[in-house]
Amino acid sequence: MNRARRQQIFERLRAANPQPATELHYGNPFQLLVAVILSAQSTDVGVNKATRTLFNKVKTPKAMLKLGEAGLREQIKTIGLFNTKARNIIRTCAILEEQHGGKVPEDRAALEALPGVGRKTANVVLNTAFGHPTIAVDTHIFRVANRTGIPRWKPGCCAWSPRSSGRMHTTG
């Protein structure tokens, strides 16, 4: 596929959805991080139902630690893998408090070092919370993108940067 065709595709995508946003409900970068961790193998609708009351109570890692793992499990028990997710979120909150002053880091390596956070989660947080030019690449994006002939890449190795004229670049 030539550059002009790629550019045309990106222009159509931008015209169709000029301000793409996540379906997850959140109030700050910490809540977004928690919601994205919870969304693994779950629907956004299910995560939003579980976090509706949780996020009214918990807005910071410190508040989540105060709620505790058992309290968090009770709040998210409708979500698949809730025991593991609760454990990871509590461990993540402890690291955020100890190493990042209670803030979500704006750095891929620091995000990926958190329990329950991989490249896809890091990309969502970096893009949505901090405006970094990344895209979360999951199996569905990978399959559709490969059908267009635009990229030649594997999931987890690359990101599409809308600020770089639609070029693919490695992220790791």
Helix content: 55-70%
Tell me the count of domains.
Answer: 2
Radius of gyration (CA) equals 17 Å
Beta content comes to: under 5%
CATH C-level label of the largest domain: Mainly Alpha
Biggest β-sheet strands, sense, barrel: 2 strands, antiparallel
Overall pLDDT confidence:
86
The appropriate CATH architecture of the largest domain is Orthogonal Bundle
Low-confidence stretches: 159-172
Give a brief outline of the structure.
With 172 residues, the chain is mainly α. The chain has helices spanning 3-16, 29-39, 44-57, 61-76, 82-100, 108-112, 119-130, 139-148, and strands at 158-161, 167-170. The protein is elongated, with a radius of gyration of 17 Å.
What does this structure look like?
It is a single chain. With 172 residues, the chain is mainly α. It has two domains: 3-16 and 134-170, no CATH class; 29-130, Orthogonal Bundle (Endonuclease III, domain 1). It contains eight helices and two strands, in the order H-H-H-H-H-H-H-H-E-E. It has a two-stranded antiparallel sheet. Helix 2 (29-39) runs antiparallel to helix 7 (119-130). The protein starts with a helix and ends with a strand. Residues 159-172 have low confidence and may be disordered.
Task: Name the features.
172 residues; mainly alpha; Endonuclease III, domain 1; 2 domains; two-stranded antiparallel sheet; elongated
